[in-house]
Predict the structure.
Amino acid sequence: MTRDRRARTGLLVANPLAGSRSSGLIEAVVRHSARWLEDLRVVHTAHRGHAEQLAAATAGTGTEVLIAVGGDGTTREAASGLAAAHRQQPGSPGAALVNVPAGTGNSFYREIWSDRPWQDALDAALSSDNSRVRRVDLLQVRETGAPVVLGAGSGLVAEVTHAAARHADVTGRERYRRTLDEALRRTRPYRGRVRVDGTLLYEGDIQLTNIGGGRYRAGHYQLLPRSVPDDGLLDICVMTDGSHLAELLELSRNAAHLDRPGVLYAQGREIVLERVDGEPLVLEYDGEPDTGTRTRCTIGISAGALPVLAPAP
């Protein structure tokens, strides 16, 4: 029986060094995808930024679907490149993204496909009856123009990312556990200011800010449970009460932290983070540490910039 195909031409970009890869996963994804696609080109990433280059190069090639096999880092690169490809060819259908989770957090996959096995998600994505193209918002760091898919953060969120860079010898979920424990011990509140669409949300001691994007960070923490990836809005959560930070993080696994003292939540189209004590603002974007020394960061939104294959409503 011939299946109804969503796309006939595809590019599969795989990161062979993703955090929780299993033997043969990439080969299994290739075989599974080939059941749906008549023409499938497979490329393994060779360096940082390679997935972004490959995705950007799909502009004008007739590629209909881009399959990214890897973690959130690979997904971020693929999304950034694909958004650039669509900017190069306005009005052209271009390729749509579907990612297969092979990393540690896999937050973007969970945002789109929840806990469905990747085989079921891939079948649905490539079937015209069971999926749709969903135009997902991208964040943008205004000072640098850098795109952000999952979210940006300061305070503890950023400290975890910077600590992870110091534990390159540890991989997978153990790396998250170790770096979170370390960051909870080391992080101290900073004196900061948060503005949403020009209005002051908070000024004072800040333990954590998270801006998105999506509900999840690190695959488990629903810091932004009201976030919708295609509503044209940024969500922000600010935690100001350091004495209960570990408890608040645990509560965020089930989105039970919002009504607790010391937690602020807002939505808008532009968010400005500032550090007002003269020290650099420690930041991260999509789990990557920011190495700059600025004291201010502006996050804006590019509504509907990324076409993603998602479950049919």
The chain has two domains: 9-129, 147-304. The mean pLDDT is 88. The two ends are 26 Å apart (CA to CA).
